[in-house]
């Protein structure tokens, strides 16, 4: 079934960003490209089957000058060991609905949605545990060195080591904030254990 594609005039304010690491999210892209000027829209292209990144995206800026500077600066920039391929969309036209989201995923892909929600739940649970522990510390109480606290400390250590390993392996700064957060939490928890 062919679908009709409509086009709009390209103001040369949209750049193509290719050869992206699969783990990179729209938030990470925004962090990288916000340094050049206001990012209007980002569209990270994802697989309909797996909902994972296809390794390329489109970023729209306020104007063509910012887009040109961003494209020139970020072309061949290394992220997680991969050299980006970045250029201003040079066709006369771009697809009209480039930044609109696709249709909802099919029912058979509920497994992917379920996996994503499970990861979100684990992150939320970890954050809630950390908040409870920090609240106990703020109240001036010492933490009991019980099984739950030890398990939590071990998870924090594992998460911290995994992030440091990724950062070192890919020579990136993407995980700096998370590493700082986990390090601070781990040090605080260790200080207040009985």
UniProtKB/TrEMBL annotation:
<keyword id="KW-0175">Coiled coil</keyword>
<dbReference type="InterPro" id="IPR035979">
    <property type="entry name" value="RBD_domain_sf"/>
</dbReference>
<dbReference type="GO" id="GO:0003723">
    <property type="term" value="F:RNA binding"/>
</dbReference>
<dbReference type="GO" id="GO:0005730">
    <property type="term" value="C:nucleolus"/>
</dbReference>
<feature type="domain" description="RRM">
    <location>
        <begin position="13"/>
        <end position="91"/>
    </location>
</feature>
<keyword id="KW-0694">RNA-binding</keyword>
<protein>
    <submittedName>
        <fullName>Nucleolar phosphoprotein</fullName>
    </submittedName>
</protein>
<keyword id="KW-0539">Nucleus</keyword>
<dbReference type="InterPro" id="IPR012677">
    <property type="entry name" value="Nucleotide-bd_a/b_plait_sf"/>
</dbReference>
<feature type="coiled-coil region">
    <location>
        <begin position="146"/>
        <end position="173"/>
    </location>
</feature>
<dbReference type="InterPro" id="IPR000504">
    <property type="entry name" value="RRM_dom"/>
</dbReference>
<dbReference type="Pfam" id="PF00076">
    <property type="entry name" value="RRM_1"/>
</dbReference>
């Amino acid at each position: 079934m062919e679908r009709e594609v409509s086009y709009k005039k390209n103001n040369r304010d949209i750049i193509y960003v290719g050869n992206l690491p699969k783990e990179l999210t729209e938030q990470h892209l925004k962090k990288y490209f916000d340094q050049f000027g206001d990012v209007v829209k980002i569209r990270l292209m994802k697989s309909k089957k797996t909902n994972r990144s296809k390794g390329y995206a489109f970023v729209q800026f306020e104007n063509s000058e910012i887009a040109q500077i961003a494209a020139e600066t970020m072309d061949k920039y290394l992220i997680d060991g991969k050299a980006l391929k970045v250029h201003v969309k040079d066709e006369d036209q771009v697809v009209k609905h480039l930044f609109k989201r696709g249709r909802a995923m099919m029912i058979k892909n509920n497994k992917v949605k379920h996996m994503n929600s499970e990861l979100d739940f684990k992150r939320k649970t970890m954050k809630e545990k950390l908040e409870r522990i920090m609240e106990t510390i703020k109240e001036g109480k010492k933490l009991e060195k019980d099984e739950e606290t030890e398990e939590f400390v071990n998870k924090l250590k594992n998460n911290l080591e995994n992030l440091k390993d990724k950062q070192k392996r890919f020579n990136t700064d993407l995980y700096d904030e998370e590493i700082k957060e986990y390090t601070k939490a781990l040090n605080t928890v260790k200080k207040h254990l009985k």
